[in-house]
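Troubleshooting: if your tokenizer reports a length mismatch, compare your output against this known-good record of 354 residues.
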Amino acid sequence: MGAPPARLEAPARQGAAAHLSRAQKAAIIVRFLMNEGADVPLTELPEALQARLTTQMGSMRYVDRDTLAEVVAEFARELEGMGLTFPRGVAGALSALDGRISAQTAARLRKEAGVRQYGDPWELVRATDLAALVPIIEGESVEVAAVILSKLDVSRAADLLGLLPGPLARRITYAISQTGSVSPEAVDRIGLALAAQLQEAPETAFAEGAVERVGAILNYSAAAIRSEVLEGLEETDQDFAALVRRAIFTFVHLPERVRSTDVPRILREVDKEVILTALAGAQTGDLAPAAEFLLANVSKRMAETLREEIAERGRVRPRDAEAAQTEVVNAVRRLEAAGEITLLRPEDAGGETE
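Known-good structure output:
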């Protein structure tokens, strides 16, 4: 007697979502998230994927509850099994490593890969100092300049117009009325070109300019060395020397740079012995007006006491006097940095401004 015939097992029932492609499942997930009120940043996807997703969503009509549940559960399982993700492409990697690799390396990699630094180049433009935009706008056509102004906040656009020559500002203002037909693609291209132009500005090794750095060095130099250096600068470059002189702030400049009402606060910052030494060494010559300025702007009683003690002290060594005067100036700088006093600008010499 032969063996009984084998039973044919019925094939296992596949899930309702098994017949869906990954594109269809992606469309279902995006639609589900949007229905739940989630903000889905689809703009971060490559344009080809955005277009494919849009086309897929447009071709679908209805998904039953069981299919939706299966697709969502599958999506959740994939998320739970995902251990680590990496940014897509060089642009994403550079964004992730921003601040962790050198600016020079990042700029070279962007240039080699042909990627732009910002998703929206106008964010960089809006954050740029207006003075840096002026030469760029002056070199562009009025139509491009009109687009640039239109993309800025109203207040910054008005400030930028104020920095431009009058005739050019008027032409740009009129050209704004002609920007209604400019396409978004054209605006994006202008923004990219402008951002690239701003990024091409060479990075400087020093935060301050040469005038400020030389002035700061000479502020702390001995008077004899300072005079010798300034004389040499005037022989080499009179314009640069004039700018450095304006940047220098020493004891002799106190009457020009310090408000009379701030003198008591400054002297409270300095030890009395230092004040006496500084004043005693400034009774004659170019420094005498500075000493008199300090004495004239404290109480009468304090001024008299200081004058008596200066007379009793007599002559002090020039080196000690200069060191004490430097301490007084350093106290002025500390108070200004702390926001407790405000110095007058060199051009305001001869009259205090409120």
